[in-house]
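In response to the reviewer comment on reproducibility (Comment 2.3), we provide here a single inverse folding case reported in full, input and output, so that an independent group could reproduce the run without further information from us. The structure tokens appear first.
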């Protein structure tokens, strides 16, 4: 088998041959008249009318010898066979095609709609032109990119050769488009909020830190889609806002976690978490049905169906107690550590918030869903409004699917004194070494003192989409971050 260097050298010679004939191997313009999809749709009409059309695309296969040649071209909309016959075109043009075109090149072919003796819809070539001469081969469909690192580095080839992967990214685009349309139709205003912040807010996560040269100060890449900013917009008088954007968390990687991903967050004034549950359940069902044309899925070893009229609600505290025997509101820290040790669950950090969260995560992995998790403790919900009947719990709700939290929402805390106290607790956790604790934001508290209406806030990330297609989150990103190659 020839090496890449040998193949590249051969293609450079073909490029030089084209140039010696006065042919530009990389022209800017093309005379394409139709996409391949349109050509196939109108094939019978074109064949009957003997219309001359010009198609363009990448050569995916080339075969034949002597006086007859075939090639398949692909333009992103479809694939079609082109048929070349030496005695039906200029001999020099035919020879040039035979001698200079390789699999991977982009070509323009002018011809007629033609059905072969085997019934294959084809383009009978009259003439052709090189659009892009490739210098490296594309991988073989069966023996090509198998190593994950190589696939992600050459994602353009991975997508080119894998129709299922292409279809997944088309679905992902539709997923977010449908989400945007739903929220817009519900009267939400799409906004853009800062991605660089002086303090990170809206989630508990380790941020990426950088330096702002002009202001000579440290700033952080946001860990939420503008939660504290969108709440400021509620105070400004906008009743409903949403944003779909990238967030950044400087944490470990796993099938469910990455450092950069897309989230949606929305905030609705005069809506509590009960009304919020109704809205988001309707939104999720609409988005999923329009994207996948089904509401039944199997993922991560779990099966779940989203079609129930109303999804079940379960209590955070009751669920943990039922599965572990621990009441996380009354148990001591030592009792929680002992239970985690008994269960063989590793954890980072010894404070009560981390112990509580780790016990819940052990339970969460056993739940297929869909269920709404409610009555989440205040200790792990620094921005959610407390329940009037039990100040240790909050009006927070999360959708649990396939053993994971796929959404987050709550009746927003708008009591400035309560918020300042919770920020103070988070600040203490930070000082004690918990680098996932939330930073305090005095200017946000000041906004609350001016007054923010009661509201419901909601967030959901692309991890939800990854569950629906049963892929690791990394696989659902077009270009996941990779370490540079080692020389």
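Designed residues, in position order:
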């Amino acid at each position: 088998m020839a090496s890449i260097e040998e193949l590249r050298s051969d293609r450079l010679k073909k490029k030089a041959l084209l140039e010696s004939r006065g042919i530009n191997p990389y022209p800017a313009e093309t005379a394409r008249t139709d996409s391949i999809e349109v050509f196939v749709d109108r094939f019978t009409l074109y064949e009957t009318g003997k219309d001359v059309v010009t198609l363009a695309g990448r050569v995916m296969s080339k075969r034949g010898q002597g006086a007859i040649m075939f090639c398949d071209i692909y333009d992103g909309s479809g694939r079609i066979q082109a048929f070349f016959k030496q005695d039906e075109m200029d001999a020099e043009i035919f020879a040039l095609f035979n001698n200079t075109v390789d699999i991977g090149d982009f070509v323009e072919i002018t011809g007629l709609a033609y059905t072969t003796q085997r019934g294959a819809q084809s383009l009978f070539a009259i003439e052709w032109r090189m659009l892009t001469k490739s210098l490296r081969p594309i991988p073989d469909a069966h023996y090509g990119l198998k190593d994950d690192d190589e696939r992600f580095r050459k994602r353009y080839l991975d997508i080119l050769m894998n129709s299922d992967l292409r279809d997944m990214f088309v679905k992902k685009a539709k997923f977010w488009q449908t989400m945007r349309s739903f929220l817009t139709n519900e009267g939400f205003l799409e906004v853009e909020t800062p991605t660089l912040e002086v303090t990170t807010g809206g989630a508990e996560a380790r941020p990426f830190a950088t330096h702002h040269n002009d202001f000579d100060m440290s700033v952080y890449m946001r860990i939420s889609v503008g939660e504290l900013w969108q709440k400021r917009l509620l105070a400004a008088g906008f009743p409903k806002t949403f944003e779909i954007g990238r967030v950044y968390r400087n944490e470990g990687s796993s099938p469910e976690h990455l450092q950069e991903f897309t989230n949606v967050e929305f905030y609705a004034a005069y809506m509590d978490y009960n009304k919020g549950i109704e809205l988001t359940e309707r939104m999720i069902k609409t988005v999923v049905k329009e994207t996948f044309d089904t509401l039944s899925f199997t993922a991560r070893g779990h099966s779940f169906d989203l079609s129930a009229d109303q999804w079940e609600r379960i209590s955070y505290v009751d669920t943990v107690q039922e599965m572990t025997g621990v009441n996380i509101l009354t148990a001591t820290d030592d009792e929680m550590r002992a239970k985690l040790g008994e269960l063989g669950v590793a954890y980072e950090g010894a404070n009560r918030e981390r112990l509580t969260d780790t016990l819940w995560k052990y339970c969460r992995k056993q739940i297929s869903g869909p269920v709404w998790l409610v009555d989440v403790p205040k200790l792990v919900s620094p921005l959610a409004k407390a329940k009037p009947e039990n100040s240790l719990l909050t009006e927070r709700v999360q959708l649990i699917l396939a053993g994971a939290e796929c959404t987050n929402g709550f009746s927003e805390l708008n009591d400035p004194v309560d918020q300042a106290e919770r920020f103070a607790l988070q600040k203490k956790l930070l000082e004690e070494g918990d680098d996932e604790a939330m930073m305090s934001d005095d200017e946000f508290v000041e906004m609350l003192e001016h007054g923010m209406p009661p509201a419901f806030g909601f967030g959901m990330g692309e991890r939800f989409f990854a569950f629906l297609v049963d892929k690791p989150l990394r696989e659902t990103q077009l270009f996941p971050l990779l370490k540079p190659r080692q020389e």
